[in-house]
Amino acid sequence: MQLVFVISGTAFCWVLLLGALYLTHTIPRAVFIPLYYLLHIFIFLFLTVALRRAGVMYTAWALAVVVVGVLLALQIFYGTFVNPAGAARYLTVIDWLIPALLIFGTVSVVGRLAR
């Protein structure tokens, strides 16, 4: 049951991020990238705290691996089946790798601190 909470919470956060991307796609890239990174940190900070309060007792490292793994699976699914024309741009260093590392770090640190 804990895995269901983690997967559904991660999918919900991913949908929130897609909505934020849709709403902010017109702002300049130099302003968008820092806001995009901060949004990732805050959304997954709240997700981790919510999962800990809901009783998810995975270790911080395991929780971070599951969250980033689910995000990778969602991103590959989205790039393959939903938007195949733009798939190559969704797994770039700036748009995916750095946020994934930020998410991994945020979930790891907050997962260790929040009980």
Briefly say what this structure is.
The protein is mainly α. It has helices spanning 2-23, 29-53, 60-82, 87-90, 93-113.
Please tell me about this protein's structure.
The chain is an all-alpha fold and 115 residues long. It has one domain. It has 5 helices and no strands. It is globular and about 40 Å long. The relative contact order is 0.17. The mean pLDDT is 89.
Find the structural class using helix and strand composition: mainly alpha
- β-strand amount: under 5%
How many whole angstroms does the radius of gyration measure? 14 Å
- Multimeric organization: single chain
Instruction: Give the low-confidence spans.
Output: none
Give the end-to-end Cα distance, rounded to a whole number of Å. 18 Å
Mean pLDDT: 89
Work out the count of structural domains: 1
* Main beta sheet strand tally, sense and closure: none
Helix content percent band: over 70%
Shape from CA axes? globular
| Total DSSP helices | 5
Number of strands: 0
The sequence of SSEs as H and E is HHHHH
